[in-house]
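Q: Is it fine to ask for two folds in a single conversation?
A: Yes, each is treated on its own. Send the first.
Q: Here.
A: Result:
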Amino acid sequence: MGMVSAQETETIQDSTIIKAPVMDSTFLKKDIFSILQERGPYSSGVIVQQTENLRNAFYNHIALASNKKIYGYRVRIFFDNSQSARVKSSNVKTNFLASYSDIPAYWTYDEIYYKVTVGDFRTKSEAMMILRKLQPEFPSSFLVKMPINFPPL
């Protein structure tokens, strides 16, 4: 019912990476309780009975969890502290997003360095895949372990 049944895999050297299944976009931002109650192909459905307190606790948990960060990996494609670093970093981010619109990019200023970091990878092997892909275009790129946003499911 909407989930991709077969997982995609990719092999790099002696490692196999199993990509997480992608959720059907028809479920995006939908209430699980209303999805369960929708009629199926044979007019079947599920009736969920719970108190309003339980429903509110469920939604509060989701709201709080979405603000939490987890540690993972990103690929740093730019860092510099020259006088023109601000403009260069902005251009790098813009050019990156033009070529890789499916990978999030983050521009930061930390103490004296302007940085552009890309991706939200839970595992080092996922980040290494992207790093290898980006190194021809960004030869000084490297991995950074840091708090990341929850990747979409």
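Q: Second one now.
A: Result:
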Amino acid sequence: MKTVFEKSVKGRRCFEVSALDVEKYDFEAGALRSSLRLPELSEPEVVAHYTALSKRTFGVDDGFYPLGSCTMKYNPKLHEVIAALPGFRDAHPLARADKMQGSLAVIDTLSAYLAGITGMDAVTLQPCAGAHGEFTALLMVRAYHRARGDEKRVKVLIPDSAHGTNPASAAMAGFEVVTVKSDADGLVDLADLSLKAGEDTAALMLTNPNTLGKFEKHILKIAEIVHEAGALMYYDGANLNAVMGVVRPGDMGFDLVHLNLHKTFSAPHGGGGPGSGPVCCKAELAAFLPDPQVTRTERGFRFGRSDWSAGRVTAFYGNFGVYVKALAYIVTLGGKGLREAAVTAVLNANYLREKISYFYPVGEGRCMHEFVLSMRKLREETGVTAADVAKGLIDRGIHPPTMYFPLIVEDALMFEPTETASKETLDAAADALKEVIELAYTDPDALHSAPHTTPIRRPDEAGAARDPVVKEEL
């Protein structure tokens, strides 16, 4: 497919710019470009080009999207309409607080709901993504210990099954990362945690359910070990979709939580829109939240500040449109609906896991909202890898699951169906996976070269990662 620049025809226009009707301003020469190349196309050509591009992509509106640990649920279109209401859409970030009372009320209301859902006391909506929320929470952890004069707490404990952003966020916040082993069941090894939690520990970062789709059944003991060491418990909310409305992180012993509004609370993410990673905390950590904070006063909502704040983490106050969609989602479902969504997500994951167990081993027990398969046996017997299986699913209209993660599982594929997948969708996915695995034994080369039905076939992914081409030479 040609680029929009290759389709350009000199002199062609979508519209004519009206004549200048204000006084011309002469900028300094150094502030101006010497040239600016833009594509020249008619309006139908522009529309046709970008419509064609859109048809080459795959999203949650196109089909089954079981990308593990990403919660790619369907996003209700009603919430897009609500977020686009003029009072929300046209709000200016530099407007005075007294002119923005409705928007500030959205922030205050959503914060109260999130605090209730997580079992926390205070919230900031500033962080613009999950990893940004992690980083913000760790800045708060650092500020908390420093305020207590506890400068020796320089280590953050992280399970070996954690999301890769956890150690990255901890390192960015200035901490030393210490890995905690998983036991034979894929849960935190309590003995290893007890050995490594000490007077130099600042916090434990933990996802529950974890990335294997398992609930940490010893979570209260874990919290006891960490708190007895004088450290804080941080909850990575990436997997909250499995437990929202069922159990609260605050009741598990966590002190801080980050959430992904663009996952759990159904706002588009990835290629579909910006994220939001609010941080919730217990009362004793509220003073360390980023400034400014929306506060309720006798004169209405205003922005307040704290002398102990960990500092501002974003311009203005984050991605407001995502807040509106998340609030609409929570209000639409209510407490009962949120719980039902979580329960259905767990049911769907277990249903799909059980469906495929007849032709591929999935291990014993039950999972939460997601599960991980190891393709090691398939690779040893047929030469077909986890990546080959994922590419084969593309040819069958299914977005690939997460590949080769978590790292503690060899040749891993991680599936997360979410609650918005129907039984028919799950049945079709199980049939597709069965077909791919049967093909691995009869015609492995067909999978080595998959996908065969996409506009772009199988790129050199390793080469692209090592030597990316990120711009078009004009």
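Q: Anything structural to flag on that second result?
A: Two points. The chain has two domains: 78-333, 336-447. The chain has a mean pLDDT of 94.
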